[in-house]
Amino acid sequence: MVMNAMSVMKKTKQQLHESGFKLTPQREATLLVLLENEKEHLSAEEVFFLVKKKSPEIGLATVYRTLEILTDLKIIDKVNFNDGVARYDLRKEGAKHFHHHLLCLKCGTIEEVEEDLLIQVEEVVEDRYHFLVKDHRLTFHGICQKCYNQEKESKTV
Question: Where does this protein hold Fe cation (predicted)?
Answer without folding.
Answer: 136
